[in-house]
Specification:
The structure holds two protein chains of two kinds.
Chain A lengths: L2 E5 L3 E2 L5 E8 L8 E6 L5 E7 L8 E3 L7 E6 L4 E6 L8 E8 L7 E4 L3 E5 L2
Chain B lengths: L3 E4 L2 E4 L5 E7 L4 E2 L4 E2 L1 E6 L6 E5 L3 E2 L7 E6 L2 E6 L8 E7 L6 E2 L3 E5 L1
Parallel strand pairs in B: 2-13
Antiparallel strand pairs in B: 1-3, 3-10, 4-5, 6-7, 6-11, 7-8, 9-10, 11-12, 11-13
The chains are: A mainly beta, B mainly beta.
Chain lengths: 122, 113
């Protein structure tokens, strides 16, 4: 059974940094692209970005709203995906979901974690 | 980026009746390489993560009840629940996965009338 468990969410001041982790199990992590999707309180889903599998270069794509501030990485030896968030803004407040895609370079998100809450406030 | 627009924003339907949610994309999401529309539908219940219901516009994910169906092609799509059950109360989102820059519709809140 696929399991994705996010951690690292916290209350942080604007301008500070935070790193989220997504621990994966139940599948061959290295074969799949992983993505992050966020949801502000009471709002809809917003794609944050994703990282391809090493077979597809391990390259990343980001939403314009986070490009230059957020970095997604992966450690295939530990089956963990990371979201490094720098220069945080109040509008980054959201539940952050980790998702497993349908392949190494696939943009369909078949499995989701339960999310971790990031609150950016002074 | 491809803009996804859902209608209506909210919908109230009686138990046992049909519910239909529409989704329109700002450009075609038909992928000629696999001859499929790169369109998915998700269901999100309060306090839960989204759950994949439908992909390739009309393929039900494993375990999804057959009262859920998807249709459409190109830029116009629909999610239909043939006979609404109480457990179907949720927010539904469409998503295009044609582009690596994934986009979602704004969501449609489905309630019981």
């Amino acid at each position: 059974e696929v399991q994705l468990v996010e951690s690292g969410g916290d209350l942080v001041q604007p301008g500070r940094s935070l790193r989220l982790s997504c621990a994966a199990s139940g599948f061959n992590f290295g074969d799949y692209a992983m993505a992050w999707v966020r949801q502000a309180p009471g709002e809809g889903l917003e794609w944050v970005g994703f990282i391809r599998s090493k077979q597809y270069g391990g390259t990343t794509e980001y939403a314009a709203s986070v490009k230059g501030r957020f970095i997604i990485s992966r450690d295939d030896s530990k089956s963990i995906a990371y979201l490094q968030m720098d220069s945080l803004k109040t509008e980054d407040t959201a539940v952050y979901y980790c998702t497993k895609s349908c392949g190494g370079d696939c943009y369909l998100y078949k499995s989701w974690g339960r999310g971790t809450l990031v609150t950016v406030s002074a | 980026d491809i803009v996804m627009t859902q209608s209506p924003d909210s919908l109230a339907v009686s138990l046992g009746e049909r519910a239909t949610i529409n989704c329109k994309s700002s450009q075609s999401v038909f992928y000629s390489s696999n001859n499929k529309n790169q369109l998915a539908w998700y269901q999100q219940k309060p306090g839960q993560p989204p759950k994949l219901l439908i992909y390739w516009a009309s393929t039900r994910e494993s375990g999804v009840p057959d009262r859920f169906s998807g249709s459409g092609s190109g830029t116009n799509f629909a999610l239909t629940i043939s006979s609404l059950q109480a457990e179907d109360v949720a927010v539904y989102y469409c998503q295009q996965f044609y582009s690596s820059v994934v986009t979602f519709g704004q969501g449609t809140k489905l309630e019981i009338k």
